[in-house]
Amino acid sequence: MIIIQDTDQFSHLQQSCVATIGKFDGVHLGHQLILDQLKRKAEQFKQPSLVILIEPHPEEFFAPTPDACPARLTGLREKLELLESFGIDYVFQLTFDKALSELSAERYIQEILVDGLGILCFIVGNDFRFGYQRQGDFAMLQAKGREFGFEVVETAAYEYNGVRISSTVIREQLEKADFALVEQLLGRPYSIKGEVVRGRQLGTDLGYPTCNINPQRRKIPLHGVYASEVRLGDRFRPAAVNIGYRPTVTETGDALLEAHILDFDENLYGKTIEVIFREKIRDEVKFADLDALKRQIGADVDRVRELFARANA
Predict the structure, then answer these.
(1) What is the pTM of this model?
(2) FRET partner for 208 with CA separation of 20 to 30 A, picked from 18, 161, 180, 269?
(3) Residue 174: which residues within 8 A CB-CB, separation 6 or more?
(4) Beta strands 163-164 and 159-160, pairing class
(5) Angstrom distance (rounded) from CA 145 to CA 7
(6) Residue 117 — very low, low, confident or very high, per pLDDT cuts 50/70/90?
(7) Which domains are present in the chain?
(8) Residue 307 vs residues 19, 190, 268, 304, 310: alpha-carbon distances, Å
(9) Which letter, b or e, does each residue of 81-96 get, where b requires 16 or more Cβ atoms within 10 Å of its Cβ?
(10) 11 and 113 in contact (C-beta within 8 Å)?
(11) Phi, psi torsion values for 99, nearest 5 degrees
């Protein structure tokens, strides 16, 4: 898969394509159905498949504070890895900034879709809005498609128990910690990947060393302590994971994922790990002192050990 940052890069490689557009947050089963639709159309037109990936999300760009935008299910790197795994040929990372937000719908079509990407077929939701003040819509795309000679196809929808699968629905289920249902909606267990970074070593001082990951998103979809598995290459190890803002030890407000891998003593700094969430243990709370925090971590670890022992029995 080739990732491009501007349309000039694409025009040096290809003259045309079949494309779709979106944020693809979570790359869930609904998205996967659209990707299948995209690949079939690309084969029909004998053109490469291209995903226009909007980054950052418009809600993030316009939000005055992190809490004012929806939580991200997947970071950019995770999205790109998932899109590649589904056999997409190109990803055009479309930067959503002030200039793009002020681009008229007509120029959006002319400069990005027609002149920039040479689209022959555009697969898009019938509720897609674009251009300055969201003035462009599906009907405009159809009209411009007839004018410029590209086909406009409505995206397929994936329903589960009568509910259309969406990133919003998955966020709601994550808040309920219904990881079994989330796995069915994603087509895989919910996880967060990241590089292990050096922290304050507080976990080590308390007797529970952790692998720390910056979730790399303005707003995180989970808060609390979870029974999880950490994937290390082809190995899976049980872990007690805290994700949140560590109110007992910091006032910075920066989110962090801390994974205490059970019965594990290897140096993972600089390595990428995947944390797979299985069950919620408790909410994140502020403790009176570090001794109280240490006692609770011990109880959390015992609970995680018990859950995995029962699952493997």
Answers:
(1) 0.89
(2) 180
(3) 73, 182, 190, 221, 222
(4) antiparallel
(5) 19
(6) very high
(7) 2-160 (3.40.50.620), 191-311 (2.40.30.30)
(8) 45, 18, 25, 5, 5
(9) ebbeebebbbbbbbeb
(10) no
(11) -60, -45
